[in-house]
């Protein structure tokens, strides 16, 4: 089968072809696994973190990609959850131990044995992949393959971030950064919290316009001050400046959720601007969101079908994965990028 693989950590600023097209043997599903014929795979900022070594794969070559939609091609000898040709999705969570305190509480995203699709196991930048059947999700009919793919990461982790804000209807929500995840959060927040106003901070004019089209109350640049203080803010940027700029806009008791698997080192100096009375005093909180649990993925897919949320996306061929990644790095973003396989 064809696969786009990462052979080593590299710097995307210098290497415009971080992934290589190779042929790999078709995976053989184990006991409780299924083999999936990949139809679409979303392109995520986390792939850049893997390529540039902020959250590196442990083995090379690695097939990246963790927003996978496809059909069941083969069943392992004891797999019984799906039938051949069923449409399934695979998300960032590839497996977890199932026995530790976090797994037993449904927070398998925090399991020390958490394995990520496309980092710790081969992912969806390929014609086929295998996955434990308990970690595959039925995809609601209303979505196309490419339309469902971005929901599986950006959407599911956005759902978990929104849940962690403890937002109540009528509370104001801020979003700093307005890429694939944030635009989905805006849509779900408007549905779940119809009386809440949403304020968007984004560097690019295009992203700000997009936010206003989707119903934001206000959109400004990262360091602009919104017309009022906010109950909570979700940060989806890869850098530090938006953190400092966001927390000063929180109300007393407000909470910042950082939805980023890793931050880049580029502007870390900006943290020296942290002023305790201005930024943290008055019981302000900062909390990160880590990975996703299966519950986040399935609850979000149902919510997305109900609203319905149909993300905007651009399609690329599997062999154009490098182009999609470079464009993502350069923040040429409007909505999501999807490899059509
Ligand atoms: Zn992702
Ligand atoms: Zn566990």
Question: What is shown here, in short?
Answer:
It is built from 10 helices and 18 strands. With 341 residues, the protein is of the alpha/beta class. One zinc ion binds next to loops.
Question: What's the structural blueprint in terms of helices and strands?
Answer:
Layout lengths: L1 E5 L12 E5 L9 E11 L1 H7 L10 E2 L4 E8 L11 E4 L2 E3 L5 H4 L10 E2 L11 E5 L4 E2 L6 H4 L5 H11 L8 E4 L3 H13 L5 E4 L3 H9 L4 E3 L9 E6 L5 H7 L2 E9 L17 H5 L4 E4 L5 H13 L6 E5 L3 H9 L6 E5 L1
Parallel strand pairs: 11-12, 11-14, 12-13, 14-15, 15-16, 17-18
Antiparallel strand pairs: 1-2, 1-4, 3-5, 3-9, 3-18, 5-6, 6-10, 7-8
The protein binds zinc ion (2 copies).
The site of one zinc ion has 9 residues, from helix 2.
How is this structure best described in words?
The structure is a single chain. By secondary structure, this protein is of the alpha/beta class. The chain has ten helices and 18 strands. It has helices at 45-51, 101-104, 145-148, 154-164, 180-192, 205-213, 241-247, 276-280, 294-306, 321-329, and strands at 2-6, 19-23, 33-43, 62-63, 68-75, 87-90, 93-95, 115-116, 128-132, 137-138, 173-176, 198-201, 218-220, 230-235, 250-258, 285-288, 313-317, 336-340. The strands form four sheets. Strands 3, 5, 6, 9, 10, 17 and 18 form a seven-stranded mixed β-sheet that branches. α4 crosses α5 (180-192) and α4 (154-164) crosses α9 (294-306). The chain is globular, with a radius of gyration of 20 Å. Residues 44, 46, 66, 92, 153 line the site of one zinc ion (ZN).
